[in-house]
Each structure stands twice: as C-alpha cells, then as structure tokens.
Design goal:
356 residues, alpha+beta
C-alpha cells in the first residue's frame, strides 16, 4: 500500500472534493450482478416468499475509502432511462487526496473505480457523465485562535433567518471545529447555499483517521478547508457552466472562486463601513499609531478598523491611505506582542474570500 508525506504545495487552490456522477446504464457493463439481484424475504416456517425487492446498490469500503454505486430510473417525456450513479470523492485518489479531483488525476480516479470490480465503463463515458451535488473545496493554513476570531466575526455578520434550514452554526469542540451555513440538503440554492469552513486537521485525526493512517505518513497541522456545494444542473446553469465531468474539471480557479464568492454573499452581510473623513489626521507617526492601538485595545479587529476608517475614500486616495495604514501597522504595531493576530485574522478573511 502506498503512503505519502503530505506535500504542502498541494494543500492550496480550488478543486472538486466530491460529486455524484450519472452514466446511462446501457453504456456500462455490470460486473457485480449483486447490484441488481432480487432480494426475497422468505418465511422460515412455510418457505413462502413474503416480499421481493430488487437490490439496486453496491458499496465498497477499503482503508477508509467508501465508494457507492446504485442504479436509478429517471422518467423522460418519452421513456424511462436507467442510470448508474457513482458517489465519487477525492479519497479515491489515495495519496494524491490533497490535489482534489482535477484533470491531471482523472485517469487514476477512473482506474480506481473500475478496479473495484462492480462496473466497467470507459474513461470517455466517465468524462461524459452528468454531475450533481458537487462539493468544491479550497485548503489553507491558520492558527486555531485566529480562526476562532475569524469565525466569530463571520458568525456575527451572517444573514439572519427564522427558517429552520437557513442560518449559520458555529461549532468549536475538541474534535470538530468550524462554521457552517445552511443545510447540505437545502433546496434554496441561491438564497441559502450550503457552505462550510472547518478544521481539516481534526477531520483527518478523528472522522477520517482510518484513511489518513493508511495513506499518509504525517497529517498536516493547522489545515482548514472551505467547502461549498453546487447542487444540480440548474444551479450550474446560473453560473453559465455545464454539468459534465469534463466541463467541471476544466473550470479555472477564477471561475470556481466566482461561484464561491456568490455563495458567500448569499450567507454573509457586507462588512460594516462607517463614513468617516480621515484627511484631517496629522501625518505624525506617533499620533496615528496611538490612535490605531487605541482602537485595537478597544477590541476592534484590524480588518474592521481599515474598512471603517477608509469608508468614505475611493480610488487613489483610498489606496494611498490603506498603504499608509498597513505600513504603520507593519513598522510599529505588528512587532508588539499581542497585535500580530489582528493581521492574521485579516489574512484569513481574505483567503476565505470575505472581502466585500
């Protein structure tokens, strides 16, 4: 069994983490007939068949990698068509898990699936498969205390809702830490999309530990994952994208980022910006630095201070003042113990994409 030391260059960037793929059954060869055998309930006393039901599912679970196959019927205007449904996930890439599902490893993924001995289908048919329930993900690193502050800020800015399936949920347990927006089975894909940010390190140590122990020599520390779901063809259409596997793995990072940003805007309010004039502040370092330190001591986050103080400025005036504030922070405030965390939280929000 191959194992891998996690390459930190692979734990960043957008990729697909999981999805359902649908392939017409007439383009698939069934190898495990158990997927469509008739299961009967028989009376042990009389031998009478009490109930018959066709089994339409088959699954494999090896070293923490679970793969599910099923056969489903879908009615069209003229006929009923049978499809093979496969639950595909990045764990099936084994030691290349952190790459996520991409064009460069799709052949390996296909080989793994057909190698399970349940069904046989060509790589061409795999790429033509129609996809739903697509989870896109991006990984990044951050310290726990900084993530907690970022989560508190986002949780406080979440769009309020009285609907049972909407809203944000902050969880901070020993073995599971993160922030979730809405429910995974949401049908309100535009107003209440599913989005989650959580500790991937804790997930690998606890929930996915069998997989991690089987395929990695080390588990990356301080690793966090942003994940959002695109539910179906109609949801993809709203972004102008097709739903075949080949089209999805051809999406650029910018195209995925645009979908993530739209999801974030659906669940988070715009960061508060109060209009304040700042041109009258004297250009003496000590005066400006003391003012910024006072705001930090009052409990305001660095990203909030910048947005509020620069709220009335636009264009070059805003960029010059922003540069000035960042220079003051880097030169005088960040070296002071206790203040560097504010800059780190600001960087986390930028990585997540909460910049609006």
């Amino acid at each position: 069994m191959s194992r891998s030391t996690v390459n930190q260059t692979l734990v960043n960037g957008w990729a697909i983490d999981s999805l359902k793929i649908r392939i017409p059954l007439n383009r698939v060869q069934i190898l495990d007939e158990g997927i469509r055998e008739v299961v009967a309930n028989v009376s042990t006393r009389t031998g009478e068949v009490l109930q018959e039901k066709e089994n339409t599912r088959s699954s494999r679970d090896e070293h923490g990698i679970k793969t599910e196959f099923s056969i489903e019927k879908r009615a069209t205007q003229f006929e009923t068509v049978q499809y093979l449904i496969i639950l595909v996930n990045a764990k099936q890439l084994k030691e290349r898990y952190f790459e996520g599902i991409k064009g460069k490893n799709i052949a390996q993924l296909h080989s793994y699936l057909v190698g399970l001995g349940v069904v046989q289908f060509s790589l061409k048919e795999f790429l033509r498969g129609e996809c739903t329930d697509i989870d896109f993900r991006k990984d990044f690193t951050a310290k726990e205390d900084e993530m907690k502050e970022a989560f508190d800020f986002m949780h406080g800015n979440a769009k309020a809702s009285t609907d049972y399936d909407k809203g944000s949920k902050l969880f901070w347990k020993k073995d599971n830490k993160g922030l979730q927006f809405n429910k995974r089975n949401t049908t309100k894909v535009r107003t209440a999309p599913f989005l989650k940010i959580y500790s991937k390190t804790l997930d690998l140590l606890h929930k996915s530990n069998i997989f991690a122990l089987s395929h990695f020599d080390t588990i990356p520390q301080d690793l966090w994952r942003l994940e959002f779901t695109i539910k179906n063809k109609k949801h993809l259409d709203s972004f102008g994208h097709g739903n075949s596997l080949s089209e999805l793995i051809s999406l650029t990072a910018d195209q995925i980022e645009a979908m993530s940003t739209k999801s974030l805007k659906a669940v988070l309010n715009q960061q508060t910006r109060e209009l304040k004039e700042t041109d009258g502040i004297p250009p003496k370092d000590v005066y400006e630095v003391n003012g910024l330190i006072w705001l930090l001591d009052e409990g305001h986050q660095w990203h909030t201070i910048k947005h509020r103080l620069l709220g009335s400025l636009k264009g070059s005036n805003r960029s010059k003042k922003l540069k000035r504030m960042d220079e003051l922070y880097e030169d005088y405030i960040r070296p002071i113990e206790g203040y560097s965390k504010h800059f780190a939280v600001d960087d986390i929000l930028n990585q997540i994409g909460y910049t609006f």
